[in-house]
Amino acid sequence: MQKSEEIKDLAAALNKAQADMAGAVKDAKNPFFKSNYADLSSVVAAVKEPFAENGLSYTQFPIEDNGRIGVETILMHSSGQWLSNSFTVNLTKQDAQGAGSAITYCRRYALQAIAGIPSEDDDGNGASQKQPSKKEIPVGLIEVVRRNNESIKAVNNAVEIGDFTAAVQCYDEITPEDNNAMWIAPKSCKEMGIPEIYTTKARKFLTEESSKYR
To answer: Parallel, antiparallel, or unpaired for β 35-37 and 68-77?
Structure first.
């Protein structure tokens, strides 16, 4: 963490702002864990007025650090005092969509942390909930795969025959939320008793080469 030489006024203002902040509203749905969580807009809404009334503001910049993507969050006070910290994560998908998702994720968690806002931890369910065993198939994943079954088959088939433009088009027909849920699923779904979602060849293409065909 970095900070200005003095943060006394900032600390006092943040203390007052936190007294006025309610928890961020859990208004988004994680399809993989079937749980509600506070998305970025809810976190921003929770801090906006208390920050403004106490001379506080913040800014967040996308950053890259040795292949990890994230944000630097700077909390500022009208006195000129400030503090900042960086938060980065590894990408699950090496493309623009994966980077965008990672930045949004980091913005939300960094802002919650710097403001001290409580909410349900959607992506960290493992810290408080029992993780699915190899034989337990998450219901949310089954639903996601079922409703995107035709597009998944089309992606795998297109990659297999070398029609990469069609593969990208079929992949992009699936919503980012559904694709994320399937991408974070175990690569070898056979261990869970279900067929692999994307073939090894398709995963390699989507990760390393799909950007060339967009």
So the answer is: unpaired
89 and 158 in a common domain? no
User: Does the pLDDT at position 130 exceed 70?
Assistant: no
Q: CB-based burial of residue 162 (10 Å sphere; 0-12 exposed, 13-18 middle, 19+ buried)?
A: exposed
- Residues 119, 197, single domain; the answer is no
Is 59 within 8 Å of 44 (Cβ atoms)? no
Does residue 55 belong to any structural domain of this protein?
A: yes
76: part of which helix (H) or strand (E)? strand 68-77
Phi, psi of 70 (to 5 degrees): -175, -150
Q: Give per-residue pLDDT as tens, 20-33.
A: 876 544 444 443 33
Q: Which letter does DSSP use for residue 212 in this model? A: G
pTM of the model: 0.53
Return d(Cα 208, Cα 190) in angstroms, integer: 24
